[in-house]
């Protein structure tokens, strides 16, 4: 089944004429930069993140300490860089967990329909009915906190919305001819889900995933702010904001700097999500 | 409609029972020594065992749950370990203060969110639209506690305009009462606004492009009437539902905002109880918050049916 060459080039031509959305380009560049920074943080950071400079406590941002120092004389800039690893790891892991569970559930529910669908979706409805932060707080308060557990807890929270989106897209796809063709060929369940449905659901899931990463980073910050997430002396952004709270009058940079870092991260990821949505659904762009 | 209501109410009951079992089990998995906490550091293992027997902690878990749940249903929430006072009145005080905070925030969010959404849609693509979208982007790109800190830094430490923390009773004067509310409400509003404003904008844009608005314009109605009476009325439906859903987010936000502003509400009480492992207080707070959340969801669903009678209830929802 090779499309005639002329048709293909015409399609490509249309593709090329529609420029990539600005949001996607800007967001994408920022996210890439963040990933590079996080990966190289150990080498970029001017000081070890937990090194205390006792004589240099509460210094305002200057040439030696780009973002100032905190109450122990630790370099805030170095801590910011290391903190980006924690934030990205948290957002990534949580999203992987929720996609890993939610996508298969949604695919199966949408493909099988009937009793399987009912069972899966009603169970998820029950999960959605619990106030999200209560569950996470309960889990984290009862057991000793760690980054991985926070990530998994946040990830499990997002299983239901991911499964719902996957299911609704799958339902739309089910009327497609390619599904009928695959059925006629007698393909097995795994092939149907992984080869026929998943590649078509994927684009929509990317948009959803970007939302989930943002959600995880923000919720993770709230949890460590409340003291139930990552524990000191880790260079977690939420934790740094929380620690700086006591000195907000005299040394505001301790709290403000990690907040700015977090907002750049969150905005970058949201831009990617918005840009992707625009590519997928050009009507949104036209409507503006 | 009535059958649907009963069905939903049944679901809420089910969730509450499930949550109560979960809370009960979770708090019993805590490595805390309740008897030791109550009796203090000079207790002996014997006195602790005696108290545990008196409190029924040595009975099998299902029996304990049954006793605990029936006491809760009768309104007896037990004694706070730490404050050594009955939980119910403490909880009620905290709840009413949180309700004031949540209620005022919801009022501000709904008026401001709708207004911003309408403005952005009417002046779509021009500067008011961009300003509104930048404003809402700011709100959602940072967690609420951070905005709380920024507000404290700006309005308390720098401008000395407002109190940075705490709560004032109405009896302390209306001015003081309101002054203590301004910053927490502003913080909650900022983080919730985006959702409502964006949704209102997109449904307004759709409504303004619709045939009935074109017809209304063609009939020569003044633009103000077209926007408010024809477009907004139809665009309102999704916004109302999303407002009720946001109430759930509000509960999460309240926990963080109350902590930042040292506001003595339910959220801060819960965080304190979790930190100090004050089991009765923790259980009661979580159950009350869950109940409020379920009721908010129920209201959202019912409201959706009221404002949009085309929705059919019963059967499986597609």
Characterize the structure shown.
By secondary structure, chain A is mainly α. Chain A is 75% helix and 0% strand. Chain A has twelve helices and no strands. The radius of gyration of chain A is 23 Å and the shape is elongated. In chain B, α9 (211-218) packs across α10 and α10 runs antiparallel to α12 (279-307). The two termini of chain B are 18 Å apart. Chain B has helices spanning 2-29, 34-39, 45-55, 61-73, 87-122, 127-141, 144-158, 174-208, 211-218, 223-260, 266-276, 279-307. Chain B has twelve helices and no strands. The longest helix of chain B has 38 residues, at 223-260. Chain B has 318 residues and is mostly helical. At the A-B interface, α4, α5, α9, α10 and α11 of A face α1, α6, α7, α10 and α11 of B.
What is the gist of this entry?
The complex is a heterodimer of chains A (about 290) and B (about 325). With about 290 residues, chain A is mainly α.
Shape, per Cα inertia axes of chain B:
globular
Number of helices of chain A: 12
Instruction: State the shape of chain A.
Output: elongated
Q: Strand tally of chain A, please? A: 0
Low-pLDDT windows of residues of chain B:
314-318
Rg of chain A, rounded, reads 23 Å
Strand fraction of chain A: under 5%
Q: Span from first to last CA of chain A? A: 38 Å
- Average pLDDT metric of chain A: 83
Distance between the termini of chain B: 18 Å
Helix content of chain B: over 70%
Largest sheet of chain A at a glance?
Answer: none
Largest interface: A-B, 40 and 51 residues
SSE pattern of chain B, N- to C-terminal: HHHHHHHHHHHH
- In percent terms, what proportion of residues of chain B is strand? under 5%
Descriptive terms for the model:
heterodimer, A: 288 residues, mainly alpha, 12 helices, 75% helix, B: 318 residues, globular, disordered C terminus
Secondary structure topology:
The complex is a heterodimer of chains A (288) and B (318).
Chain A lengths: L4 H13 L4 H23 L31 H37 L1 H16 L2 H11 L4 H11 L1 H15 L3 H9 L3 H38 L10 H8 L8 H28 L1 H6 L1
Helix pairs in contact in A: 2-3, 2-11, 3-4, 3-6, 3-7, 3-9, 3-11, 4-7, 5-6, 6-9, 7-9, 9-10, 9-11, 10-11
Chain B lengths: L1 H28 L4 H6 L5 H11 L5 H13 L13 H36 L4 H15 L2 H15 L15 H35 L2 H8 L4 H38 L5 H11 L2 H29 L11
């Amino acid at each position: 089944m090779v499309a005639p060459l002329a048709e293909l080039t015409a399609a490509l031509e249309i593709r090329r004429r529609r420029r990539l959305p600005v949001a996607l380009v800007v967001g994408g560049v920022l996210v890439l930069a963040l990933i590079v920074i996080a990966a190289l943080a150990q080498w970029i950071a001017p000081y070890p993140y937990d090194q205390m400079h006792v004589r240099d406590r509460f210094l305002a941002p200057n040439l030696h300490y780009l973002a100032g120092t905190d109450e122990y004389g630790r370099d805030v800039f170095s801590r910011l860089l290391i903190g980006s690893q924690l934030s990205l790891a948290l957002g990534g892991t949580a999203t992987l967990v929720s996609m890993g569970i939610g996508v298969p559930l949604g695919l199966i529910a949408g493909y099988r329909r009937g009793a399987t669908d009912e069972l899966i979706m009603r169970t998820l409805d029950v999960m959605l009915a619990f106030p999200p932060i209560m569950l996470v707080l309960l889990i984290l308060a009862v057991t000793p906190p760690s980054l991985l557990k926070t990530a998994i807890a946040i990830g499990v929270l997002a299983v239901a919305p991911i499964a719902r989106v996957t299911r609704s897209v799958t339902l739309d796809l089910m009327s497609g001819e390619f599904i009928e063709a695959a059925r006629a060929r007698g393909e097995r369940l795994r092939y149907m889900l992984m080869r026929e449905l998943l590649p078509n659901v994927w684009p929509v899931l990317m948009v959803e995933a970007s939302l989930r990463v943002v959600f995880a980073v923000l919720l993770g910050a709230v949890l460590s702010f409340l003291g139930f997430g990552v524990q000191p002396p880790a260079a977690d952004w939420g934790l740094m904001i929380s620690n700086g709270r006591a000195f907000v009058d005299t040394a505001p940079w301790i709290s403000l700097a990690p907040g700015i870092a977090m907002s750049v991260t969150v905005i970058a990821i949201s831009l990617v999500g918005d840009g992707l949505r625009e590519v997928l659904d050009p009507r949104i762009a036209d409507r503006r | 409609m009535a059958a649907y209501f009963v069905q939903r109410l049944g679901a809420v009951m089910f969730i509450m029972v499930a949550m109560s079992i979960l809370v009960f089990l979770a708090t019993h998995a805590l490595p805390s020594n309740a008897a030791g906490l109550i009796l203090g550091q000079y207790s002996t293992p014997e006195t602790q065992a005696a108290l545990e027997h008196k409190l029924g902690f040595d009975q099998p878990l299902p029996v304990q749950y049954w006793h605990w749940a029936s006491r809760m249903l009768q309104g007896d929430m037990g004694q706070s370990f730490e404050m050594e006072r009955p939980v119910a009145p403490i909880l009620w005080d905290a709840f009413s203060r949180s309700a004031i905070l949540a209620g005022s925030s919801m009022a501000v969010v709904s008026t401001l969110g709708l207004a911003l959404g309408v403005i952005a849609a009417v002046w779509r693509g021009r500067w008011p639209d961009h300003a509104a979208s930048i404003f809402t982007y700011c709100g959602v790109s940072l967690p609420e506690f951070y905005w709380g800190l920024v507000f404290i830094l700006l309005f308390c430490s720098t401008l000395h305009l407002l109190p940075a923390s705490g709560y004032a009773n109405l009896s302390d004067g209306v001015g003081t009462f309101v002054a203590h509310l301004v910053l927490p409400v502003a913080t909650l509003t900022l983080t919730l606004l985006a959702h409502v404003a964006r949704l209102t904008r997109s449904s307004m844009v759709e409504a303004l492009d619709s045939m009935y608005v074109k017809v209304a314009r063609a009939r020569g109605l003044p633009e103000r009437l077209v926007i408010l009476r024809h477009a907004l009325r139809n665009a309102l439906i999704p916004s109302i539902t999303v407002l009720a859903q946001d109430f759930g987010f509000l509960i999460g936000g309240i926990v963080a905002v109350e902590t930042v502003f040292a506001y003595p509400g339910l959220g801060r009480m819960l965080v304190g109880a979790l930190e100090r492992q004050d089991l009765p207080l923790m259980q009661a707070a979580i159950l009350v918050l869950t109940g409020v959340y379920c009721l908010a969801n129920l209201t959202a669903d019912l409201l959706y049916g009221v404002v949009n009678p085309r929705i059919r209830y019963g059967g499986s929802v597609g």
